[in-house]
Amino acid sequence: MSLPDAEALLAGLAEQMRPHVTPDTALVGLHTGGVWVAQRLHAQLGLTQPPGALDVSFYRDDYAQRGLARDTRSSSLPFDVEGRHLVLVDDVLHTGRTVRAALNELFDYGRPQRVELAVLIDRGGRQLPVAPTYCATRYMPPDGQRVKLAQEDDRLLLRLAPDTE
Predict the structure, then answer these.
(1) What value does the mean pLDDT take over residues 122-135?
(2) Contact indicator for 92, 121 with CB cutoff of 8 Å
(3) Taking the CB of the first residue and of the last residue of the chain, which one, N or C, has fewer CB atoms within 10 A?
(4) Alpha-carbon gap, residue 50 to 94, rounded angstroms
(5) pTM of the model
């Protein structure tokens, strides 16, 4: 089974979300792929709040074992979280542990009214009870592989990479 087209998935995800978001809904992308997806969704959905970004490195439950990643970035939420409708955005949902870490970090900023989850790809393999509210497709990569989102020339591309987790 070949990888789906990321641009087509993005368009489909935006169409799923459109009836359920208001201009004041805030998107929060998870570094790195989720930030790229959130930026693109923000433009396609015509939202007024600039998208936020979370790097959950310090909130991961395996931080003590893995340590800090080399490409750690700062989190940025350019809006008030308190009482707001938020959509966490990630490129690929797998075990659910990254989403759990994102929720922990998000609540350090305040108490949102509602938090939903949007992903381009759900690859299954959940270890925690996490499910996306919006999902463009389900795709199971071959054994030993994972799906990785890349950005080239303002286009999003999906690739397979060795699964190191």
Answers:
(1) 97
(2) yes
(3) N
(4) 27
(5) 0.93
* CATH number of this structure's domain 6-162, picked from the four choices 3.40.50.2020, 2.60.40.420, 3.50.50.60, 2.40.440.10: 3.40.50.2020
Q: Where are the domains of the chain?
A: 6-162
Mean pLDDT rounded to a whole number for the chain = 92
SS3 track for the chain: CCCCCHHHHHHHHHHHHHHHCCCCCEEEEECCHHHHHHHHHHHHHCCCCCCEEECCHHHCCCHHHHCCCCCCCCCECCCCCCCCEEEEEEEEECCCHHHHHHHHHHHHHCCCCEEEEEEEEECCCCCCCCCCCEEEEECCCCCCEEEEEEEECCEEEEEEEECCC
Tokens at residue 50, please? 């600039």
Question: For residues 106 and 60, what is the distance between their CA atoms, to the nearest angstrom?
Answer: 13
Mean pLDDT on 47-53: 96
pLDDT tens digits, residue range 26-41?
A: 999 999 999 999 999 9
Report the candidate in 108, 117, 54, 119 with the shortest Cα–Cα distance to residue 81. Answer: 108
15 token code pair = 């169409």
What pLDDT, in 10s, does the model give residues 104-114? 999 999 999 99
Q: Which residue has the tokens 């990630």?
A: 90
